[in-house]
Amino acid sequence: MQVGELFHVVHVVDDLAAAEVWYERIFSPCYMFRGHESTLDHRTASLMLIADYPAEPMAPHPGQAGQQGTIGKFRRRFGPRLHSLAWYCDSIGEGYERFRSFGARVTGDGGAVLRQAPTRGGIYTHPRDTFGMIELMEPRVGGRGGAPIGDSLGECYDPRLAGTHDASWWSTDHPLGIRRTSHVTVLVDDLERAVELYVGVLGGRTFHETRAPRAAFVAVGSDSVVELRLPAAGTAEADALAREGAMIWSTTFLVTDLSAACAHLSASGVPFSPGTHAVSIDPGQAFGARYALTAEVTPGDPREPAAS
């Protein structure tokens, strides 16, 4: 099985329209689709690209159906925040078998447990089995993969797959100067088991490790990096892990000039907190999402020209 690009990072919000306005003000995203309705998950979603980062803010439908849907249940339990990760792959059948061999429960659209490998579309892991939910999706290209043919999204809505997306625009023309997504951080309670999942099941490669906090940086698919972090006791991350369980925590963007990026945040009225090597956007202003900016390249990052 070959894992490809990061398909999307779901961001559960209360107000999709307001979240879109926020993303537009800060990041100037390129939309893949807007306001897509799902009657299976009872939610409305928009999918957008920020350089190479595919963000998918979504909100549960109003009313009882939305509250009882998978997104509504998540919102009720955890509040607005980043929700899950998804990658393209070339065989969801093999992905299903790999997840099952790892001991993970696997579901289809709407949360129905799968008893056998599907032939097309997407699969989803149970979040408690894989340190947060992971989706694998066969790309919708040339009439195959993705959602059913005839769906309102069309044959291929991802400009990366069509070869028409210019991720460099955010580096050269946008005031944030985003070079790429540095990494997505997932909080875990068993680092060795998490590495086994991301390396053994998803075919990733660990290229950097840290001791404080204990973490492994894993290159996954064609162009993404996941930091698997075991938080130190007494930290906000450790408290969140104990309260919410293992799942995605934050996304960090690599920028060309951190001072210039901070100037854009200030001019946009976005509060942020400076750190040793990065600045973090106030999640209260980001609809619960945790976003950070850094100008430091993770040691050994295989996407750097010098590492190739």
Describe this structure in words.
This protein is an alpha+beta fold and about 300 residues long. The chain has 2 domains: about 5-165, 2,3-Dihydroxybiphenyl 1,2-Dioxygenase, domain 1; about 170-295, Roll (2,3-Dihydroxybiphenyl 1,2-Dioxygenase, domain 1), CATH 3.10.180.10. Helix content is about 25%, strand content about 35%. It is built from 9 helices and 16 strands. It has helices at about 15-25, 65-70, 70-80, 90-100, 160, 170, 190-200, 235-245, 260-265, and strands spanning about 5-10, 30-40, 45-50, 55-60, 80-90, 105, 120-125, 135, 180-185, 205-210, 215-220, 225-230, 245-255, 270-275, 280, 290-295. The strands form 2 sheets. The chain has an 8-stranded mixed beta sheet with strand order 2-3-4-1-5-8-7-6. It has an 8-stranded mixed beta sheet with strand order 10-11-12-9-13-16-15-14. Strand 10 and strand 11 (about 215-220) form a beta hairpin. It is globular. The protein starts with a strand and ends in a 14-residue tail after the last strand. The model has no long low-confidence stretch (mean pLDDT about 95).
How would you briefly describe this protein structure?
This is VOC domain-containing protein. Helix content is 25%, strand content 34%. By secondary structure, it is an alpha+beta fold.
* SSE topology string: EHEEEHHEHEEEHHEHEEEHEHEEE
How does the helix and strand content classify structurally? alpha+beta
β-strand percent reads: 25-35%
Which CATH architecture of the largest domain would you pick?
Roll
Low-confidence stretches: none
Instruction: Using the CA coordinates, give the radius of gyration.
Output: 18 Å
- Separation, N- and C-terminal Cα atoms: 23 Å
Spatial sequence of strands, sheet with the most strands = 2-3-4-1-5-8-7-6
Keywords: Metal-binding
Protein name: VOC domain-containing protein
GO molecular function, one term: metal ion binding
Domain VOC: 180-308
